[in-house]
Amino acid sequence: MRRVLIVAVVLWLAGAGVAAAAPEGTLTIAMHFTPVTRWLDPAEGESTITPYLLLYALHDGLLKPMPGVGSGPSLAESWSMAKDASSADFTLRANAKFHNGEPVTAEDVKFSFERYRGGAAKVLKDGVKEILTPASNRVRFVFKEPWPDFPAFYGTFVASAGWVVPKKYVERVGEEGFRKHPIGAGPYKFVSLNPGVELVVEAFEGYWRKPPSIKRIVFRSLPDETTRAAALKSGEVDLAMLLTGPTAQDVKRTSGLRLVAPLLGIFWLDFPDQWDPKSPWADKRVRLAASHALDRQALNEAETLGLSKPVGSIVPREFDLALPFEPHAYDPAKAKKLLAEAGYPNGFDAGELTPFPPYNAMGETIQGWLQAVGIRTRMRAMERGAFMTAWREKKLHGVVLTISGVSGNAATRLESFVTKNGAFAYGALPEVDDLFRRQARELDRKKREVQLHQLQKILHEQVTQAPIYHLGFPIGVGPRVDDIMSSAIPGFYMSPYEDLKLKRP
Predict the structure, then answer these.
(1) d(Cα 403, Cα 59) in Å, to the nearest integer?
(2) Domain encompassing residue 449
(3) What pTM was computed for the model?
(4) Is residue 33 included in any domain, yes or no?
(5) How many CA atoms within 13 Å lie on the side-chain side of 66?
(6) Structural domain contains residue 426
(7) How many domains does the chain have?
(8) Do residues 351 and 378 lie in contact, with contact meaning Cβ atoms separated by under 8 Å?
(9) How confident is the model over 245-297, as pLDDT tens digits?
(10) Contact indicator for 403, 311 with CB cutoff of 8 Å
(11) Which residues pair with 64 in a beta bridge?
């Protein structure tokens, strides 16, 4: 008995020592884009995973993608949907608090939802009748009609409306003050932002899940790929995001460095002018010609060392309710024939080709393939923040090379891009809109699957987009970094920041 007691005490002390270990060291991440201040605020989520690279550090949500699950409880200790999908109830964690020490309350949850103005904001707010707060730790969302997809919109990368900010603090400092010094409930606290240079965050040891192991994380803006790779090789940074082609190959061959490639979003060509009946893009044959002009596998090999997967849909085939399609074959001769049949035997001037930043080299390759079949474009390079604003405000024309990592299921992936009220949709097919509305209310899974499959078939037949590939996103990992668990969270860059570790000397 005495031996057992001694062992128990030793184990308890060892555990206490681990729990009490203070965060140490600095992790420096070389970013492939320049962060903008609005991405520090959950209210500005943009139906893409870009802001979540920062939100996962500073903030937390009731539900969010977590290791092994597409959406799991986080600030919510538990939650449930009514059997008739007419409401959803959440119970908050007792130990969840903001960086200023204030507890996360039901009023903060309600405030954050009402304040949300980012991607999928319209579909979320149109679907919610009222938000009830029967207790400080309980929230109930009541829907205007049955809504089985509410958690898929509310608790994934579709929207950050479920990510919670402190109501009292925001009201005290104002919107601009919050952007300058955001306070959240995530594993890291805001320290400083030098626009165009770096964002610095520091471990929040009061984080409910567990204290982070790393003291500081520096998100350094290095848009040039060769500069990121050089900084990784010199030890100046520990992670280099998005290394492609020869640069990725060089890092892969360098002793002490590793290359990992989580599957993130799907790339596609969007044709914003297809909704203008006077535009060449209004003819399905022209859009199909553009798709046949693409050598997807060659692009995959050149850009991502073959780590991506060519696709025929913007919905990942592993998503619930997805209807997979094979990609259109690379066939320049067929593309030219289709253009001739559409009345453009000598091709046409298609205006600008705007690639999602910083994928300009990918855009130039695609521009060359389109040119080869007669679709002439002019490259337009942009900063990511400006691109996202222009895309959302419907100011991009010609051809847009874009990507989305919106998660959830087939319906949530499609909503922003193919429905009339979608954040990035320049137009919509009436039959698609009708099917989307019907499936959103449907409680019978089989009937819903039939409707969503029919919707996806229409999109494929009408070539509303030209899908390219499911991106294998190459990340260079330096020698000081332990495993970043790049496949831990489905469709995300790495494990939660509180799980990251530096190797001890």
Answers:
(1) 24
(2) 263-472
(3) 0.88
(4) no
(5) 14
(6) yes
(7) 1
(8) yes
(9) 999 999 999 999 999 999 999 999 999 999 999 999 999 999 999 999 999 99
(10) no
(11) 72
